[in-house]
Amino acid sequence: CTTNIQGRKFSLSSIELPRTRLPFHRSSCSTRQDSITSNKQLRNPTNMVDSFSFWVMPEKNSDMFSRLQSRINQLAEENSTLPFEPHVTVLAGINGPEEAVMSAAADLAANMAPRQYNFTNVQSGKMYFQCVYILMDPDGPVVALHNAAKKALIDRGVNVNTPNPVYMPHCSMVYGELDDLTKGSICSGLEGSESDVLKGQGGFTGDSLYVLRTDGSDLSMESWELLKTFKLTGST
Predict the structure, then answer these.
(1) Which of 75, 74, 72, 84 is nearest to 26 (CA)?
(2) What is the CA angle 159-127-82, rounded to 5?
């Protein structure tokens, strides 16, 4: 029930990956998802824009990746929503030439070091892509990575339109439009099952920066595409 993103060519500064559509919605977990992805309101090609995102993720072979992926798949199955890979968005709403975006990502990866990203507590929101999520430490290294990424892009003349006025680092667990009662129940369940890693007790080590094409108007995620993965090799 997971997508597969595997590097095939390696260089000193980055992992070169084939450009691959990320079929988050094509999961064998639930046949109920067929009715979701057939909904034309989820994907409107006429509104597509060339937008990019930077992510960090747990290592694919780590216990934390497996744990989060399993819970995301389970929640998608239970709520007829779409599964996706566990990640923390460093920066979204990046609009500009792909060459400039890649240049910023390469410089960022060369200067930033792998860090531990810790979870704090579970919350829910009003946005489709911020339905239910686990907040990250607001004073943690992901904030420094976010600020450095934003500066590197702005220095190259790349426009950044973030969904939140203040950066809110988080690891999403559910995408969708659920009622408050359902979201509250999910939050309570996560607070119980993941209590050992909340409140700064646990998290994951991120050693790579993922660059994706992610149009926020495509709720089906059919058009989302991994472009490149850069190893974090710096010391900051």
Answers:
(1) 84
(2) 105
d(CA 213, CA 215): 7
The whole model's pTM is what?
0.82
33-76: pLDDT as tens digits:
333 333 334 444 444 457 999 999 999 999 999 999 999 999 99
